[in-house]
Amino acid sequence: MMWSVRRTSLLPFSFCLLASLLAWPAAAQQRPLLTEDPEPIGAGRILIEGGLDVAHDQHYPVSGLEGNLLRFPTIGLSFGLSSIAELQIDGGFYNRLNISGRHPSAPLASLVTATGDSTSSVEDIVIATKLFDVIAIAPSCNQPRVRGQPVATKDFLSQRILYP
């Protein structure tokens, strides 16, 4: 059996390899992944959620701060407006960042007003409506597939940047 080798250009592969080696990381703040429930809570129902967030060794490249973040309590209220719509109000009462490092070359480092090794603030309130629509009924079961699209606005309680 005779094998034949097709000769192809290595130029596209070389370009992709060079582009991936020379790429700069994005300078954006990392946030935890928040997941939304894909189904509405139902008309006339109220859902109350609560918890706390603890994030260790967080780096905020926009403000140049590093440290441990505590958010307590985090509260969410969802009101079922109809079978396909709900109103959500999310927020918290207390945020504290224990600062372990500062980077003065960060883009907004000059706007940070926090002095010392910690800072705290009140969480901004997020008000959102979420509308759901049925995409299709899955053939393997009698459950419809649902897609939710939140539309949100954030109420900024302060004009100062205490921490990211």
**How would you sum up the major sheet?**
6 strands, antiparallel
Can you tell me the overall shape?
A: flat
- Number of contiguous helices: 1
Average pLDDT rating? 76
Indicate how many domains the architecture comprises. 1
Q: Percent of residues in helical segments?
A: under 10%
Assess the beta-strand content as a share of residues: over 45%
Structural class: mainly beta
Low-confidence stretches: 156-164
Q: What's the topology here?
A:
Blueprint: H1 11-22, E1 46-60, E2 65-80, E3 85-102, E4 118-121, E5 125-137, E6 144-155
Antiparallel strand pairs: 1-2, 2-3, 3-4, 3-5, 5-6
Could you describe the 3D structure shown?
The relative contact order is 0.18. The model is unreliable at 156-164 (pLDDT under 50). The chain has one domain (39-155). The radius of gyration is 24 Å and the shape is flat. The protein has one helix at residues 11-22; strands at 46-60, 65-80, 85-102, 118-121, 125-137, 144-155. Strand 1 and strand 2 form a beta hairpin. The chain contains 1 helix and 6 strands, in the order αββββββ. With 164 residues, the protein is mainly beta. The termini are far apart. Strands 1, 2, 3, 4, 5 and 6 form a 6-stranded antiparallel sheet that branches.
